[in-house]
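Researcher: Here's the sequence for the chain we discussed earlier.
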Amino acid sequence: MKIVVIGAGAIGGLVAGYLKLNGVDVTLLGHGESVKAISANGLKISGVRGNFNLKIDITEKLEGRPQLVILTTKTQDIPKALEDNLSLIKNSWLLTTQNGVQADSICARFIAQEFISSSIVMFGATNLKPGEVVHNFEGSWIIGSLFKKDEEALKGISKVLNNIFPVVVTDEISGMKYLKIFVNANNCIPAILGISMQEAFSDTAISSISIGIWKEGLEVVNKAGLKLVSLPDFPLERLTKLTSLPTGEAAKIFSNIMSNLSKQPLYGSILQSIKRGKLSEIDYINGEFVRIAQDNNISAALNKKLVDMVHQVEKTNKFFTKQELVNNTKGLFN
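Model: Thanks. This is the structure I predict for it:
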């Protein structure tokens, strides 16, 4: 199978690199510094599986027609990525990997629904320098469809991807995607502070804000009547149990979990974008809670405040202190 991975960031670089290591015909599509760095020095992968330096085909403009497109850009970059390559990919299988729940509907404006499959990435990676990816932790790759299911496509995609990550095929991808928003929702905290997750969440006062994010988010999705479905690496019970506890008690448990998630510093996708001088996907993560709340005439004041703070960091390139974060969110959660 000829595969193109669009997006040379953390997930795109990691996936393309591991596919290349498994002998797959893969091309990586990127821009600017990433293309220059990888063309000159190879794709450097380090982390939980060891260190690799791979020669891999990378280009800014697709030339051949692939059988499978793995789309790893941020959600806001999807339209341009598809428009730039539409003539060659409009009849290819397309797999989305983005956080949030909007990617597939955006893709459907350009690609016929029957060609679109959806996925959830549960493994973690970091990309702060062009052409260099750190594989932080292992996890499954969940695939399904938000539209009419194409059994052949899911079978073919699963067969290829299962060589690099354990694949889970599901009929409940929608409910899983909504739960994955909760997994990603705390990425806004290190982005606001400009520090790693380990540094941020070692502080129980900061971890209390994270529990507030989850409690508010859960209230919003429940009032909107949205179904959450357990993820293989994150059961729904983990969310419901923690949010049922007093905030201080839950924060201590959350702090311990996050402080020991990875030996390497974890920054989260939002801060990684900011560090690279790009707009983050905050509007599709915490902003999704805000959108759902607005659509149902309910409040998501804490998540709204955090979205605004991330946008302020994006505009000013100035991070908040922990005390400023605590002060800005005071009274917005219990």
